[in-house]
Amino acid sequence: MNAAAEYPEAGHPVRAAVDAHRTWLRDTIRTHLIEAGHPAPDRAAHTLVLLRDGAMSGAYLDDATTVKTHLRQAVDTVIGCA
Question: How far is residue 42's CA from residue 59's CA, in Å, rounded to a whole number?
Answer without folding.
Answer: 26
